[in-house]
Amino acid sequence: MTRIIKGVFDFQKNVHGTREQLFKNLGSGQKPLALFITCSDSRISPDMLTQTQPGELFIMRNAGNIVSPYSWDHASGEAATLEYAVKQLKVREVIICGHAKCGAIHGLLNMDKLDALPEVKRWLQFSEPVLAALKRDTEGMSQEEILAIGIERNVLQQLENVKSYPFVREAVDRGELRLHAWVYHFETGTVLAHDQTKKRFVSLSDATKPKFNATKEEIESYIKSHQGGMDLTI
C-alpha cells in the first residue's frame, strides 16, 4: 500500500493542481470518444496506450476482455456498461482490445487445470466457442502460436457477443456506432487491428489507411470519421 498511497499524494501535488481546469470541466459530465473493452491484466494501461486524457475513454475491464452475450439470462456488469455507453453516452466507437500473453486465454486452452479457480472457469464459458475451430486450425503449431491465435479469435468472439445486443445492431445500422477488434503486444508496443476485407489482423496503421482506389468522397468521409489522431496517410 505504501507505493500506492505515495502515488496518490504525488498525483495530488504534482498532477491535479497543474491541470485544475481539466478536472473542473469533468465535473460537468462526460462525453467519451469510445468504449474501450480490455483485460484486467496489470500490464495493460488503456490511457497510456491511446494517449488519452480523463473523460476521453469509457473503460470496461475484466478477465479476458469478455462480454457476456445478449441471451445471457443473468444481470451482467458488461451488459450494463455496454448499454450505458451506447444508449446514454452515445459513444461512436467500441474497441475490444485483447493483449499478448493473456492469462485468461491460456486458461481457456487448459480448462482441465482450472478446478482450483471455479469462477474463472465459469467466466470463460463466454469464450468457449473459440475452442472447436482453434483446435482444428492449429494442429502441429507450438503452444505459443496457438495462444496468439486464440487471443485474436477471442477478441472476434467478443465482438460477436457485442453485436448480439439489439441496441448495438441498431446503432451500427444507423451509422452511429463502429466496432473495432484490436490486439496489443505490450512488449513491442504493436497494436494489431482486424481488417474486415482481408479477414485477418494487420498493423493498426495499415487498418486505418484508406484504399488507394477510394473515391474523393470516400476519402473525405474517412478523414471526417477518423478525426482524433488516426493514420490518414493515403
Q: Could you please say which CATH topology applies here? A: Beta-carbonic Anhydrase, Chain A
User: What general form does the structure show?
Assistant: globular
The mean pLDDT is: 90
Class of secondary structure makeup: alpha/beta
Quick recap of the structure?
With 234 residues, the protein is an alpha/beta fold. It is built from 11 helices and 6 strands.
SSE map:
Layout: H1 2-14, H2 20-26, E1 34-39, H3 46-50, E2 57-62, H4 77-88, E3 93-99, H5 103-108, H6 118-123, H7 129-137, H8 143-163, H9 166-173, E4 178-185, E5 190-195, E6 200-203, H10 204-207, H11 216-225
Parallel strand pairs: 1-2, 1-3, 3-4
Antiparallel strand pairs: 4-5, 5-6
Descriptive notes:
- The chain has one domain (30-205): Carbonic anhydrase (Beta-carbonic Anhydrase, Chain A, 3-Layer(aba) Sandwich).
- Helices cover 43% and strands 16% of the residues.
- It contains eleven helices and six strands.
- It has helices at residues 2-14, 20-26, 46-50, 77-88, 103-108, 118-123, 129-137, 143-163, 166-173, 204-207, 216-225, and strands spanning 34-39, 57-62, 93-99, 178-185, 190-195, 200-203.
- Strands 2-1-3-4-5-6 form a six-stranded mixed beta sheet.
- Strand 5 (190-195) and strand 6 (200-203) form a beta hairpin.
- Helix 7 runs antiparallel to helix 8 (143-163).
